[in-house]
Design goal:
Helix content: 40-55%
Order of helices and strands: EHEHHEEHHEHEHEHHHH
Largest sheet: 7 strands, mixed
Radius of gyration: 17 Å
Strand order of the largest sheet: 3-4-2-5-1-6-7
Strand content: 5-15%
Shape: globular
Length: 261
């Protein structure tokens, strides 16, 4: 059974989708069979991987979750897109926004995504889940299905202070829904080490959380090349393979693989 990793933060603009794409493609480049699930109704990850018109897709995450709710048989290959860079993708589109309403009245509403993943992830070494910048029912579903969570955080004062709210939510989910859920670590993203303010925030995060949560040793640097890769629908490994962002994400891939060894 593959390892299920959620990339989550209740704050937008912290590089969740970029991290999901880079980690997923990076794992595939290391020979790991990887499925990436877009559990964000804004479908930023889906678009960032070059799927330009997701609303025209016949099968997406909303489709298969609806099948779980309706107790229909799940085809493990339905809707999965085989990306040119090696990873498989279960995309999302605007129809996922209605899933929140569909989940709300259900008994066991937190485990619908888990039931889908249990049907498919035996074929994969890793299953990554990109999430919305809120703790909505879809994000709760993702955390309920996960073995671990990676938390991208930018070196911004409000992001650092808001991290405590996410950690409390994760603790509640671990206590009430998914006792096996672990925090893989905090990943500092969009880091510009040339400013003293950035250094101060990194120190604040390390001093506040470093004693109880792993902070990944390799920080993801700020770079326009990362934004360019997202706009082009390709990973940083293809867009700028020799750049500093690709090197930093390659180091993250190595740490994740080492964790699973």
């Amino acid at each position: 059974m593959g390892k299920v990793i959620v990339i989550a933060n209740r704050k937008g603009g912290c590089g969740k989708s970029m991290t999901t794409a880079s980690l997923g493609v990076g794992l595939a480049r290391q020979g790991k069979k990887t499925l990436i699930i877009d559990a964000d109704s804004q479908h930023s990850f889906t678009i960032s991987m070059g799927i330009a018109e997701p609303d025209k897709l016949p099968v997406t995450l909303a489709t298969v979750m609806s099948d779980v709710i309706s107790e229909k048989a799940i085809d493990p290959n339905a809707g999965i897109i085989h990306h040119a860079e090696g990873a498989d993708i279960m995309p999302s589109n605007n129809s996922l926004a209605g899933m929140e309403l569909a989940l709300a009245p259900l008994i066991g509403r937190e485990t619908v995504l888990r039931q889908y993943i249990e049907k498919v992830h035996h074929s994969y070494d890793y299953c990554l889940i990109d999430t919305a910048p809120t703790l909505d029912l879809l994000t709760v579903n993702a955390l309920a299905a996960a073995d671990s969570v990676i938390i991208p955080v930018t070196p911004n004062y409000l992001d650092a202070k808001g991290l405590e709210l996410l950690l409390k939510s994760i603790a509640q989910i671990r206590r009430n829904i998914n006792p096996k859920l672990e925090i893989s670590g905090i990943l500092l993203t969009m880091v510009n080490r040339r400013t003293n303010f950035t250094k101060e925030i990194i120190t604040l995060v390390e001093n506040t959380y470093g004693g109880r949560i792993r902070i990944f040793g390799e920080h993801i640097p700020h770079s326009v090349r990362a934004a360019e890769s997202t706009a082009k629908g390709i990973s940083i490994f293809t867009h700028d393979p020799n750049g500093k962002v690709a090197a930093a994400y390659a180091a993250l891939v190595s740490e994740v693989i080492s964790d699973a060894a």
